[in-house]
Amino acid sequence: MNTPEENELLQSLLRRYEVEQFYNAEAEMLDSRRFDAWLDLLADDIRYWMPLASNQEAGNWAAEYSVEGKDLNWFDEGKFELEQRVKQIQTGLHWAEEPVSRTTHMFSNLQVDNGDDGTIRTSCRFLVYRNRTEVETDFYVGKRRDHLRRDPLRRDPLRQRSGGGLKIVRREVLLDQNVLLSKNLTTFF
Amino acid sequence: MSEKNLGSGSRLYSGDLINLDQGLISRDIFTAQGIYDDEMERIFARAWLFVGHESQVPEPGDYILSRMGEESVIFNRDRTGKLRVMLNNCRHRGMRVCRYDKGNSRKFMCPFHAWTYSDLGDLIAVPKMETGYHNELDRGEWGLIQARVTSYRGFVFACWDEATPDFETYLGDLRFYFDDYCELPDGSYDDWEAFGGIFKWKMPCNWKFGAENFGGDYYHNPSHASVDQVILSPAGTKGRHTYDDVTKKQEAWKLNIAITPEGHNARGQLFKDDYEYMPTYQEMAVVEDYFRECYAKRQERLGEKARWYGHGGTIFPNVSYSNGVQSMGTWHPSGPHQTETWRIFLAPKAAPDEVKNVLRHYVIRYQGPSGLTEQDDMENWGSSHTGARGTIARRYDFNYSMGQGYEQKGWPVEWLGGNVHATEDVSEQNQRAYYTRWAADMDQPPTSDRIAPRHATTTQAAVRAAE
């Protein structure tokens, strides 16, 4: 018999394992260019946000990132817009991604918690490496915070059930750059 | 790949590197370090350069960091409400005196030796004034270097050279077109308001590629074929622009407008008759009502001139404006092979939040590094730049001959400006006008011949004296 504390720990390990597996699968989809499969991981009401980062005086760090829903942001959109981005790549005529980039999505420093709205809250560091055409190379490094939700219609691969799989409801991508050092943001984070 | 250190002394710019009699431009103007160095002295030290919009510094003390050429400047509204543009550079050892992208401050202290300047640019404190300088340093001579500043309908430009004509003269016949850009959708000159934040990003190409592309390259539409297949327009329909639907149904001339000799460019369409309002935002009642009302007011305000529907253009040398997405984009030179592009977007200040939000979402996915359209533009420019560097490739000039000899001086509509060149559909007349001006400036002696470095306080003193 486990103690209640041990059971709680097991539950949190299981939850963390599930999220890790979810992110591994997601990275695999993006890096193997299965963008439609990736879109299926996003809830229909997803908010996908990447703010601009500015240099601020000590004590004014709350103003470091541009404001979602109000200011300019690198991304501040929902599923419809992300679908258009995928469609554009799939035309084969989107010259910024044709020939398509080679990407490797990595994440680490994962923390997983339960949100009070029934979502799972995660925080991690990401490193996205991109190489395209011959020598064009970019590194995107930063912090990512997600809200994940169990979806009754999405398969749960861990428990091998037809429902209860995870979907991304909210993604905040904090890129550690002020002046963007790459010429575009044609990849997903 | 090695670029010769071309530049002053080796070849003339007009007629040689820029050989427009034959529609040819040397690729070296995009890649040679010597030419780039000449640009800094002969163009950027002389021209009116865009630094920001008044709404970015609404309150006394507000500042943002901006750029002029390669250099950082403080653009602020001082405690008296006056707009200033000052080199962000300590007069003692040149360190940046302001290190934050924006804020509100009455003083700027250099972190190195603590020389401290006021928001008016005056040097107000020098440590060890008595024991170090024996009170012999004249603080009045050592304020921040200040530029001439003008606010044109809220858009703020600055210039380092007193010999450059005032901004309105500098604009020349672009005024009609830039005024059109400055107008709100309802045809008034009420306030625009910049959204918070500035897009800033690096592009691996010379700064002129963006400038000439925005100035008048309707020819490059094929590179946006992928965008035309997805839904980008704020109306939620296929196509890139708000006006795509309108022009499908109503006849218009698509015009390239070249302003000579100033070298500015405009693009837009002239409806053959009054165009009717096209419902575009049926699913968003507030937005639809707003634009329908704006359309009616604009018709009433502008009368026949409402037939002009501007798309955008470039003010020589390096700022491009886009109507519709209402942006100001500055192509900051960062060496011959790199550009740091800055872009702000604006919305009518008094518009309902729903309208601002629609516009904001549209511009984010249209322009800039995350914009569906400009991503492909940057692919073009980067590859053109690389293509200008090869030893063999460099022997062969770029072709700028499209429509040469077919430019139409004036357009049979008097109010579009009798001196402009207006050519329909596709033409490289705008690029030719731009590079003709570029070459004329480059053949001038460098500004440093007139303004010796040690007299650099002249401008600062003149700016302060004129107050």
Question: What attributes does this structure have?
Answer:
heterodimer; A: 189 residues; alpha+beta; Nuclear Transport Factor 2, Chain: A; 3 helices; 6 strands; globular; B: 467 residues; Rieske Iron-sulfur Protein; Naphthalene 1,2-dioxygenase Alpha Subunit, Chain A, domain 1; 2 domains; 9-stranded antiparallel β-sheet; 12 helices; 22 strands; 25% helix; disordered N terminus
Overview of the molecule:
The complex is a heterodimer of chains A (189) and B (467). By secondary structure, chain A is α+β, with helices and mostly antiparallel strands. Chain A has a single domain (4-175), classed as Nuclear Transport Factor 2, Chain: A (Roll), CATH 3.10.450. In chain A, 24% of the residues lie in helices and 36% in strands. Chain A is built from three helices and six strands; from the N terminus they run H-H-E-E-H-E-E-E-E. Chain A has a six-stranded mixed beta sheet with strand order 2-1-6-5-4-3. In chain A, a hairpin with a 5-residue loop joins strand 3 and strand 4 (120-132). The model of chain A has no long low-confidence stretch (mean pLDDT 96). Chain B is α+β, with helices and mostly antiparallel strands and 467 residues long. Chain B has two domains: 49-149, 3-layer Sandwich (Rieske Iron-sulfur Protein), CATH 2.102.10.10; 172-442, Naphthalene 1,2-dioxygenase Alpha Subunit, Chain A, domain 1. Chain B has helices at residues 28-31, 33-44, 167-171, 175-182, 207-216, 225-228, 244-249, 285-302, 353-366, 374-386, 429-442, 457-465, and strands at residues 18-19, 24-25, 49-53, 62-68, 71-77, 83-87, 102-104, 107-109, 116-118, 123-125, 148-152, 155-159, 192-194, 199-203, 252-259, 264-271, 308-315, 319-322, 327-333, 339-348, 398-399, 421-424. In chain B, strands 13, 14, 15, 16, 17, 18, 19, 20 and 22 form a nine-stranded antiparallel beta sheet that branches. In chain B, strands 6-5-4-7 form a four-stranded antiparallel beta sheet, with no helix packed on it. Chain B has a three-stranded antiparallel beta sheet with strand order 1-2-21. In chain B, strand 8 (107-109) and strand 9 (116-118) form a beta hairpin. In chain B, helix 5 (207-216) packs across helix 11. The N and C termini of chain B lie far apart (51 Å). Mean pLDDT of chain B is 91; it is low at 1-5. The interface between A and B is large, with 41 and 42 residues.
